[in-house]
User: What shape does this take?
Amino acid sequence: MTWTADEMMTVTAARSLAGRTSCFVGIGLPSTAANLARRTCSPELALIYESGAIGAKPTTLPLSIGDGELGETADAVVSVPEIFNYWLQPGRVDVGFLGAAQVDRRGNINTTVIGDYRSPAVRLPGAGGAPEIAASCRETIVVVRHKPRTLVDRLEFITSLGFGDGPGHRAALGLRGRGPIRLITDLGVLEPDPATCELTLVSIHPGVAVDAVRAATGWPLTVRADLRTTEEPTAAELTALRSLTTRSSTRGGGVA
Amino acid sequence: MTWTADEMMTVTAARSLAGRTSCFVGIGLPSTAANLARRTCSPELALIYESGAIGAKPTTLPLSIGDGELGETADAVVSVPEIFNYWLQPGRVDVGFLGAAQVDRRGNINTTVIGDYRSPAVRLPGAGGAPEIAASCRETIVVVRHKPRTLVDRLEFITSLGFGDGPGHRAALGLRGRGPIRLITDLGVLEPDPATCELTLVSIHPGVAVDAVRAATGWPLTVRADLRTTEEPTAAELTALRSLTTRSSTRGGGVA
Amino acid sequence: MAELVSLAEGVAELVHDGDAVALEGFTHLIPVAAGQEIIRQGRRDLTLIRMTPDIVYDQLIGAGCAARLVFSWGGNPGVGSLHRFRDAVENAWPRPIEIEEHSHAGMANRYVAGASGLPFAVLRGYVGTDIAKHTKTVATVTCPFTGEALTAVAALNPDVAVIHAQRADRRGNVQMWGITGVQKEAVLAASRSLVTVEEIVDELEPQPGAVVLPGWVVTAVAEVPRGAHPSYAQGYYDRDNDYYQSWDPISRDRETFGRWLEEVTAA
Amino acid sequence: MAELVSLAEGVAELVHDGDAVALEGFTHLIPVAAGQEIIRQGRRDLTLIRMTPDIVYDQLIGAGCAARLVFSWGGNPGVGSLHRFRDAVENAWPRPIEIEEHSHAGMANRYVAGASGLPFAVLRGYVGTDIAKHTKTVATVTCPFTGEALTAVAALNPDVAVIHAQRADRRGNVQMWGITGVQKEAVLAASRSLVTVEEIVDELEPQPGAVVLPGWVVTAVAEVPRGAHPSYAQGYYDRDNDYYQSWDPISRDRETFGRWLEEVTAA
Assistant: This one.
C-alpha cells in the first residue's frame, strides 16, 4: 500500500502513544493521531478533550474538541474548569498532544500572532488549552507539517513553553511536566538533544532525503549519528486511518 | 388547639421565612422550621442544604442534612465544594438558618467546646457549615431553646460570628451578610438593638412571663418598650408541623 | 423565579450598550440566535467575553458591536480563521477592537472566581509564556504555607451572561446536558443572565449528565428553538458542519459579509 | 485501570500504620465496612481525615486506630454526640488524640486544592472566629489585583482515600449518584484510593446526577454489598436510622463499646 506524507506523520504520531494510559488531545492534527492510536496500538488509551470529555471513544473523527460524539461516548463529561483544574493541572495525564502554527528549535510553541502583538501581520487563534497542556502533562508530543515558516529558529511570541531557553529552564519555572519529548512531522521525527534541549532529527520517513528535511527546517538542523528510518505504515494502520478520515469527511469539514 | 413551647418556637421561626426566596438550612432545629415554612407561609422557598441539595422538597422531615430524600426531591444536587463556593460564598442566599449550643448577647455562636479548647469540659460537634453561613448569607436567623447556659453573656469559643464585639465589627472584617437579625427561642423573639447590636426581647410568646425570659437569659436582658406578644400558632400551622414530625418519627430518630 | 420573555424582549431588557457580555458555549449549545438578536438591535461598544469566540463572535465583531474582546481561543472550529475578527485586529475594520487574551485554564478560573464571589483564582499557568506580558489580569501570588509562587487571574464578572440550554420549566429552572462547558460559572458570575432554550416544558425530567440552574439565579428565559444553530443541541439537532464551512467565504470578504449582515438585520 | 480486590486485600495493600486516611461520605455512601475492616486489621497511628466524622470514625477512634483527627463536624447525625470521640478528646481514652479542626467550607476547599495540584485554596471563611487560632493550616492571602485580604487553607493530600459507590465496571470505572459530597475530590487528592461498591457490573448505565471516576485514577475496587450500612446507598437501601439510635448507648460506655469491638474483630 502507498501512503501520503500526512498519513506517514499521523501513523508515526499514533505509534508514539503505545503503552500510554491517558492523552490530553489538543485541537488539530493531534486529534487524528490520538483517535488512530485507539484503533491500532493503544485501544485502552483514555482520550481527554478540553471540552470536558474524559475517555471519549468517537467512531468518527471529531471536527472540533467539543463534538457531540465526544461527550456521548466518554466515560465522564465534566465542566471546563474541572477538566483543567482536577485533571490537567495536577499532572495526572501521561501525554499532551499538541499542534502548532510555529515551533522553535527548543520546542516552544506559537499559536498567537505572527509579527508585532499589537499590530500583527497574522492574527492566529490564540492559546486555548495549550499553555497548560504543555506545562502540566507528564510529557508532550507536538505534531506539525514540516515547513521553514513552521519550524523556526526563534519565536516572536511564546504561547506554550517547550524547553524555553534550554536545559533547566522548565525546572527553574517550577513546571512539573518533562516538556516536548518529540516533534513529529510529515518528513521525520525530532527529539531534544539531552545536553542542549535542541530538537534534532532522530528518524526520517521512508523516501525522504535528509537535505529535504534540512531545507524545511528554520534552524541549522542537527542529524543524529544513529539516524533511523521510520517504519513504513502497515496496511492495518492505513486502513484504520482512512476509514476514520472518510467517515469524518462524509460529515463535512475537516479537523481544524 | 394547644401547643408546646417547641411548637411555638418552630412556628415562629417558620413565619420569619415568609417572602424569602432561598434559605441555607443548618443542621438541627432550623431544618424543622424551614420545612414547615414550605408547607405554610413560603411554599416557593428554595431550601439549600450543605450536602449539596438545592431546592429540596422533602415530604418528611430530614433526619440529617444529607438524607436521600433531600437529593431525590431537589432541583439540583451539586458537590459539597460547589455548594459552599458557588452558592453560599457569593452571598446569593437570602437567609441562613442556624442552631447553636451557645449564643452570646451579640449573636455570636459556639458549637465547638465548653471550657478550655485543648482540654474541654464538653466537646461539641464543631463548626460544620455554620461559620460561612453566618458570614455569607444576606441575613441569618438563629433558633435555640431558651436556657441560661445557652444564651450566655460571653463565649469561651466563637465558632460563628454574629455581631462580634458590636457595631461595625462585621463590616471591619469585610463580611458581606448583615448577620443575625433575629434569635428565636421557645420563650420569645430577640432582635439586635440597632445602636449596640445587643440582642433584646422584641416579642414574647403567649403565656410566657417576661421575668421567666429574664431568668433564662445569661445577660441582663433589655426588653423593648414596644414588646409584642407573638401571634399564637394557627391550627393550620400546628397541623402542618405535627404531620411533618409524626411522619418523620415513624422513620425513627429525631432531628439532630 | 426567572421571567419568561421573547428573545427580542430579553436582549432589549438585559443587554445594554457598553455592557460586558459573555455569550458562552463550548462548541455545544452556543447562543447564536441571541448573538444575532444583539446585532439586530444594534448594540454598540460591548466588551465581548468568551473562551472560544467562533462564528457568532465573528458576526458581532464584523457588525461593529464590540469595542473589546476577552478570550482564549478565536477560530472557526474545523475550518480555520475568523476573518472578521482578524480584520478587526489586523486592520481595525469596521472599528478598532481591544483584546484581552488568556489561556483556557485562565479564563475558566476567572469565571470560577467570579461565580464564587472571590476577586481572583489561583492556578499553575502562563509560566514562561508571553501571554501575561499583554494583560493586566494575570499576576503572581505566593502560597502562605509553602512559599511557592503561583499564578493568579482576576475574577470575571460580566454584566450579563447569555447561554443556550435544552430546556426550562415554567418557573425558569434551566436544564442542559452533554458538554456544558463553563456556562454555569458564566451565569453565576454575571449580574444578569438570559437563557435561550430549545423548549419550555412543564416538568424537567432528570437526564444523565444534566446541569440544572434554579430559576432564582436566572434573570430571564426565552424559548428559541434551534437557537444554537449552527452549533448543536444534544438530543435536538446535530452540528451543521456545512454552515461552518460556508461561513468561511462569507467572512473572508467585507462586501460579502455586508450582504449577509443586511439580510440578518432585515430579518 | 483499577485492580479488583477483596475488601481485606484492599485494606491490607493500601492502608498502612501511620497513614493519613480519608474515609469520605457526606451522610450518603459512607464507607463503613471499609472502616471496620481497618479496625479488624488493627491499624494504628492513623491520621483520620473527614468533613463529617460519624459512627464509623467513633468506632475507629474507640478502637485506638487514630493518633490524629482532621475534621469539620463530628457527631451522630439525628442523634447527638460521638461518645468515643468525646472520650478520646476529653479523657485521652483509649489514647490521646490530636485534633485539627476546620469549617466545612475550609475542608471542602482543602480537598479541592489537593485534587487540583495546588498547595492552597482561597475562600471567604473563618473570619472573626476562634477556629483559626488552633490550626496552622489557615492563613491570610492578599488579592494581587484588589489588595483585599482573603483566607487561605492548606491543601489536603491524604495518603489514601476510601469511599463507597453504587457501582463499578470490570475496568474499575466507578459510578456514584445522589449526594456525592466531596468524594471525587478526596480520591483525586489522595496518593492511593480504595473504592468499595454495591456491585460490579459489565456496563455502567448512565444515571441522572451520576459522578464517574475513570478506572485509571482509582487504585483498587472491592465489591462490598451493603458496605455503606448504616448509612444509605441510593437505589440500593435506605438509611438505618435505628442503628444510629442504637449506637448511642453502645458508644456511651467503655465496656459496652469494648464488647461491640470484640464482636467486630472476632467477625
